[in-house]
Amino acid sequence: MFWGEQPPFMPFGCGGRYFFGLMELSQNVPAPGKPHLRLGCPLAAALIILILALLAGFFFFRAETWPARTTQQSVTELERLGRDACDAFVRLAHLQPRVTVNNRVYLEQTTTIAELSVLARQVEVEHEMLHSWAGSTKRIKLHGTFSVKTGFDLRKKFTVKVSPTEVLLELPHAKILSIEQEQVEVLAFENGFWNRISPNDIENEIATLPQLARQKSVALPAEAERIFTQQLLKQFHPGQPVRAIFPAPPPAG
Questions:
Q1: How many structural domains comprise the chain?
Q2: 27 is a domain residue
């Protein structure tokens, strides 16, 4: 090789190897953003796992407390029915009955009055007395008009039993509260010649008339019970069945 001549392809070869070497090095150097991606992926995965764990815990808590929440809602609804029944009694009879919810006492019975008159009827009766002695006869005939009031003794037990299947109303039997004399007419007043009408005869005959009025009104308590039950169910009509019963034996007379 002479002075001044360049060796063929040598610089190109050296330069080419240098150039391709730089390219290979540049390809092997990681990009600046990739280390951040490697750090972010575990953080995102941990966050997702945490969220899933919280959701699982929430659903588990809801499932575990569902029976208790359902029971509490059911009891609250039954207590509302008990209050509604109590309000119906207060409006109708000025009485707060004894209310039980699932056999647990919710309200005790209280009242401001002793009796509740449901039905009043005017009853008319007649009675005649004939008495003969030694051929002498005396005669008294009376006609009486009475106002007979029938209803309930509010000192008796009025109970509302609320359960998930029905509302049971336990009521005392109605009874005749009062028999008030309105008028007495004398239809016959005849003395015998020596068998005279005495004041005692008159008192006995007048006292007999209310007894006859009571006997004539024997069906009124059952009618009062029917009327009161109908009025009560008009005031209180929940979505579940309601039964009204009279468990105690009816009062005598």
A1: 1
A2: no
